[in-house]
UniProtKB/TrEMBL annotation:
Belongs to the short-chain dehydrogenases/reductases (SDR) family. This is SDR family oxidoreductase. The keyword Oxidoreductase applies. It holds the Pfam family adh_short.
Length: 253
């Protein structure tokens, strides 16, 4: 796929992997739009990269997703790429019931429902374009071997992995390409709880994920599993129960 002269929307693009992907796409000659919940972070991103277009949007809200679609396609009618990158991760203990499941942030809405809904909104617009278009979903190595302390996060990423496969099959004969990027632990705000336990010191840097993403787009590698995430995917085929227990033992100390 061509990696220049595109118009790209990245959800959760003001920090971490999203901002790193925005940077490499800008440098490659693309028009880049980012959205996020926090206006302060969007302003910081724009100060760093003045070429960015920004939009405050909480993708966990259905009405906000619809407004984002209407605004993006109106202001940028040639938009042809959607990066579903927004995500949150929470440690939830089901032994305490529903505590933390539906507090300030919903993992299910942000990580899974938003991706599905935004894809459904943008794909008909993409099908009308004359050029190649793309939907790129950021999943995780934990889609293959789950970590028990973040069960909902793992479930949403496993769902996104499955969704990406099905969507790719549906769109195979169209101009819309479907990519999945599955990183391992990355040194971003997403893993702030893991950082408190010193688990994410081994994580890779967000720019490394961004560079791997651009290579995947350029070479039409529709499923890109990065770094240690490859180990988890392989383990899921060999001995999933054994590696699940091993991963959880290492993660919880």
């Amino acid at each position: 796929m061509q990696t220049t002269n595109n118009t790209v929307l990245i959800t959760g693009g003001s920090t971490g992997i999203g901002l790193a992907i925005a940077e490499v796409l800008i440098k490659a000659g693309n028009e880049v739009i980012i959205c996020g919940r926090r206006e302060s972070k969007l302003l910081e991103a724009k100060q760093k990269f003045p070429q960015l277009h920004t939009r405050v949007c909480d993708v966990a809200q259905k009405s906000a997703r619809e407004e984002l679609y209407q605004w993006a396609t109106s202001e940028f009618p040639h938009i042809n790429m959607l990066f579903n990158n927004a995500g949150i991760q929470k440690e939830i203990d089901f032994l305490t019931g529903a505590s933390g499941l539906y507090d300030e942030e919903s993992e299910i809405e942000t990580n899974l429902v938003a991706t599905i809904h935004l894809s459904a909104l943008f794909i008909p617009h993409f099908l009308q374009q004359q050029k190649e278009c793309a939907v790129a979903n950021v999943t995780s190595g934990l889609a293959f071997i789950p970590l028990k302390i973040v069960p909902v996060y793992c479930a949403t990423k496993a769902g996104l992995h499955s969704f990406s496969i099905s969507l790719r099959s549906q769109l195979a004969k169209t101009n819309v390409r479907v990519f999945e990027i599955a990183p391992p632990i990355v040194k971003t705000e997403l893993h702030r709880e893991a950082q408190a336990r010193k688990q994410s010191q081994r994580g890779i840097a967000a720019p490394a994920v961004a560079e791997a993403t651009i290579r995947a787009l350029k070479n039409n590698h529709y499923e890109t599993i990065i770094g240690e995430a490859n180990v988890l995917k392989g383990a899921s085929r060999i001995a999933p129960k054994f590696f699940h227990n091993l991963l959880n033992k290492v993660a919880t100390g």
